[in-house]
């Protein structure tokens, strides 16, 4: 697998006008080819099929090569690649995943990694939940956000005690991306255990943003 194979395809369908708008939406933090998600995934789906992605062990060199590229679409491909290949993820891969989280960090990649990659590793290797206990204490905001969001898809398998502990620990945090993550994590869990979330929110001094997000569909 080579990045150049994707570069050739992406260059053919690049759209400069869309690239400007997409970059602006991401606060001009990244360059873009201007390829929107449906178009990108159509190209990537064909390439992944040729490469037999999901049937072979993860090529971490390829992942990090994608991460080094300037255009943001490459990082999206890296995340899609990891999710497609998730059955090959190991417990030790959290170390490499963390490198992705703290590099070129923004919500678009971090959130997908949190739920689709980190969450999968923790569910598959339950002992790695201890790593989440470390991450919730991390100095890096995006690592903390990942710890808060990794159970998003767990539903009835959510570790309620741990979720509430993480949220309470950062209840007073005024950082937008942390307060928003707390609300989002609680809102998702509220679809499974609404009364538990309502009770927790009522007794916990959360930021207003967290409360609004948590109770958006419950009250």
From TrEMBL:
**Membrane-spanning parts:** none
Which Gene3D superfamilies would you find in this protein's record?
A: ARM repeat domains, Hypothetical protein (EF3068)
Q: Which SUPFAM superfamilies match?
A: ARM repeat
> What InterPro entries does this protein's entry cite?
ARM-type_fold (IPR016024), DNA_alkylation (IPR014825)
Pfam families membership: DNA_alkylation
Question: What protein name does the entry list?
Answer: DNA alkylation repair enzyme
Q: Which organism is it from?
A: Evansella cellulosilytica (strain ATCC 21833 / DSM 2522 / FERM P-1141 / JCM 9156 / N-4) (Bacillus cellulosilyticus)
């Amino acid at each position: 697998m080579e990045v150049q194979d994707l570069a050739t395809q992406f260059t053919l369908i690049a759209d400069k006008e869309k690239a400007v708008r997409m970059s602006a939406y991401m606060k001009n933090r990244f360059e873009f080819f201007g390829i929107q998600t449906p178009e990108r995934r159509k190209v990537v789906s064909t390439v992944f099929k040729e490469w037999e992605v999901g049937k072979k062990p993860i090529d971490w060199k390829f992942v990090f090569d994608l991460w080094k590229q300037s255009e943001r679409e490459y990082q999206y491909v890296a995340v899609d690649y990891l999710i497609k290949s998730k059955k090959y993820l190991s417990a030790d891969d959290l170390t490499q995943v963390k490198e992705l989280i703290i590099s070129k960090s923004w919500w678009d990649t971090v959130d997908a990694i949190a739920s689709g990659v980190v969450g999968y590793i923790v569910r598959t290797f339950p002992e790695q939940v201890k790593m989440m206990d470390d991450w919730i204490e991390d100095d890096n905001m995006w690592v903390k956000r990942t710890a808060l969001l990794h159970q998003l898809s767990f539903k009835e398998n959510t570790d309620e005690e741990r979720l509430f502990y993480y949220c309470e620990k950062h209840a007073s945090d005024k950082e937008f991306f942390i307060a928003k993550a707390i609300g989002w994590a609680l809102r998702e869990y509220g679809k499974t255990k609404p009364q538990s979330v309502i009770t927790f929110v009522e007794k916990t001094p959360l930021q207003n943003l967290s409360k609004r997000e948590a109770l958006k569909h419950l009250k």
